[in-house]
Design a protein that fits this description.
about 280 residues; Oxidized Rhodanese, domain 1; 9 strands; 10 helices; 2 domains; five-stranded parallel sheet; four-stranded parallel sheet; about 10% strand; alpha/beta
């Protein structure tokens, strides 16, 4: 199936199949309860709410992990089955508009081997703009039979990043806003800057003004800077391993392959003062 789907495609699937699983991933770092509250007020019929911190992240260990560690694969698999996902289910994920949260669940499902998973392009806002129905009803799902197998090759540890920093074939891509990457401002984590050698490709630039992904040819042009013969290993990171998945999704959509994820990202990198940081010197 396509990696991106439209609201009308999803509406049609809901009328044709009872094996479509929809997940609402709306979440706000500024107000962790806002996503659940928004879901309670209205959501796409049949959608289940998946909370970034309660459902899609593991426990935070101060001084060791980033802000959103990967969840335990076994625990996540149990949650997915409880949510009604089957081996042959079609899964569609969405958030408010820009897919910055939905990409987390897309990546986790892919990590567990789920291939029939897509993002609703433009998110819940696109659904509303299309004038499609919403509900406050909570779906009732029978337990599913999905059994995922995590693919450890899809992500890298902090130790591996540290070991590979000086390798010319290794390329880190930072998805955060330029002002955070440069070290001028850091609104969330205790230290500003970036991992030495990383390129800055903010995830917001994967999108149109309406919050949809750019056409594939435009994404390919955006990531042209990465088409260097010497680079054989692309690794994406951000503040806590969430919006890095946006660049991973966009790169795959553009046809340049799937980079690996550094899930600990900047928040784990700076948990120890022993790791090097870089800033952009102002002119």
């Amino acid at each position: 199936m396509d990696m991106l789907v439209t609201p009308h495609w999803l509406l049609q699937q809901l009328s044709l199949s009872n094996n479509v699983c929809i997940f609402d991933c709306r979440f706000s770092l500024a107000d962790p309860d806002a996503g659940q509250q928004a879901y309670n007020q209205q959501h796409i019929p049949g959608a289940i709410y998946a909370d970034l911190e309660r459902d899609l992240s593991g426990p935070v260990v101060s001084g060791e992990t980033g802000r959103h560690p990967l969840p335990d694969a076994s625990r996540l698999n149990d949650r997915l089955k409880a949510w009604g996902i089957n081996q042959d289910s079609t899964v569609v994920v969405y958030d408010q508009q820009d897919s910055s949260q939905a990409v987390r669940l897309w990546w986790l499902l892919t990590w567990l081997g789920k291939t029939q998973v897509a993002i609703l392009d433009g998110g819940f806002q696109a659904w509303l703009d299309a004038g499609l129905p919403t509900t406050v009803e909570l779906p009732s799902k029978a337990p599913g039979n999905f059994v995922g197998q995590p693919d450890s090759s899809m992500w890298v540890s902090t130790d591996e990043v540290l070991q590979q920093l000086s390798q010319p074939k290794w390329c880190l891509v930072d998805a955060r806003a330029a002002i955070r990457y440069s070290g001028e401002q850091e609104p969330i984590d205790p230290i500003a800057g970036h991992i030495p050698g990383a390129l800055n490709l903010p995830f917001q630039e994967n999108l149109t003004a309406a919050g949809c992904f750019l056409p594939k040819h435009q994404l390919a042009e955006r990531f042209k800077i990465l088409s260097v013969k010497e680079i054989t290993d692309l690794v994406c990171y951000c503040g806590s391993g969430v919006t890095a998945c946006h660049n991973i999704f966009a790169m795959e959509l553009a046809g340049i392959g799937r980079p690996r994820l550094y899930p600990g990202s900047w928040s784990e990198w700076v948990a120890s003062s022993s790791r090097p940081i870089a800033v952009v010197q102002s002119k």
